[in-house]
Amino acid sequence: MNPHLDKLQSYPFEKLRHLFASVTPNPAFSAISLGMGEPKHPTPPFIGQALCDNLAGLASYPTTQGSAALRGAIAGWLQRRYGIAPLDPATQVLPVNGSREALFALAQTVIDPAAQSLVISPNPFYQIYEGAAYLAGAEPYFVNSDPARNFGCDYDSVPAAVWERVALLFVCSPGNPTGATLSLTDWEHLFALSERYNFVIAADECYSEIYHGAQAPLGALQAAHMLGLASVEHPYARLVVFSSLSKRSNVPGMRSGFVAGDAAVLKKFLLYRTYHGGAMSPTVQAASVAAWNDETHVEENRAQYRAKFAAITPLIQGVLQVELPDAGFYLWADVSRTGLSDTEFAQRLYAEYNVTVLPGSFLARDAHGVNPGRNRIRMALVAEAAEGLEAARRIVQFCHSLSAS
């Protein structure tokens, strides 16, 4: 067996299953889950219709590179969304079966397993980053998010001796679970570090289209374009961006996303994926073209999230320490003032009110003397508004019962 598998922790939802194993939830309440970040808004009908209209694609083996139509649609969306110069669809864009699979696979592509490399990850983090590092033969190095920095990571705290071993840096903006976004200054700093120490940046941007202010989150390619790093001889050097239709278009079951950026990295990534077997079904490709070419459903989806957050966040703020995030569909709440740990809070809320939330410590690791997820919970506001409001009311009631006891 691959010895690196023994380094993997149980996935957060497996930990949650064990936490709840001995608990029988209160039957007076119907089950509401805020635990998993699975979009619950209806899939736009035109995407389903596009799938049905292209069932003939099921009779063909797909190419790993994907169709010219899909790569062109993705390149067009990137240009419209971020105001960047057109990418070359043939060399700078690659369709993938969801950003999760591609994030994992990139590490296997860029890491030399004999080099004792490090992979830098934010902490807390999307668990794929850690698994990808270990199974590529590298070690993760965690940089803790800091509430005082709007949950940004202090990359200046990373010693030079660490940077010298880094092969890959995972960045998640908007962040999971914090919702924090990177500024142009943040990106400029990361690009300078990448150039100095010659590591690849993997920018995970799957939450980019769900935001709560007037300004859309800054993307990595957009930042590089603004800083003049897209017009040099090697454009977007060492930068690969990941995005997905799952959250943007409410189609997590389609497993459709893309990577874009450095053509040299993507050339090697395509070679890896050719052997890995990562080709997307032609039927899904056709539906993906329709989705990337339409923004109306994205605006409507964003409006639904904004309405939910506007209604639910003030209710939660009455009992827990939490702020409206920059973007994404999570609330990242501090439960310290309840007197319960994050695991105790989640377990008792489930037992007494049949509401599931995810303990923050399950999403982070002990690093530099602290687990930055401890005493926090992640609430995914993915359900329809009525169900989300009901969950919020139960959480308020639960917290009031704690105060009264």
Q: Which features characterize this protein?
A:
alpha/beta, Aspartate Aminotransferase, domain 2, 405 residues, 13 strands, 40% helix, Aspartate Aminotransferase, domain 1, 14 helices, eight-stranded mixed β-sheet, globular
Structure commentary:
This is Succinyldiaminopimelate transaminase. The protein is of the alpha/beta class. It has two domains: 3-42 and 297-404, Alpha-Beta Complex (Aspartate Aminotransferase, domain 1); 53-294, 3-Layer(aba) Sandwich (Aspartate Aminotransferase, domain 2), CATH 3.40.640. The chain has 14 helices and 13 strands. The protein has helices spanning 12-20, 45-53, 68-82, 99-110, 128-135, 160-163, 184-197, 220-226, 245-249, 263-276, 282-292, 296-317, 342-353, 385-404, and strands at residues 32-33, 93-96, 118-123, 139-146, 152-153, 166-172, 200-204, 239-244, 257-261, 330-334, 355-356, 358-359, 376-380. The chain has an eight-stranded mixed sheet, sandwiched between helices. The chain has a three-stranded antiparallel sheet with strand order 10-13-12. Helix 3 (68-82) runs parallel beside helix 11 and helix 12 runs parallel beside helix 14 (385-404). The radius of gyration is 21 Å and the shape is globular.
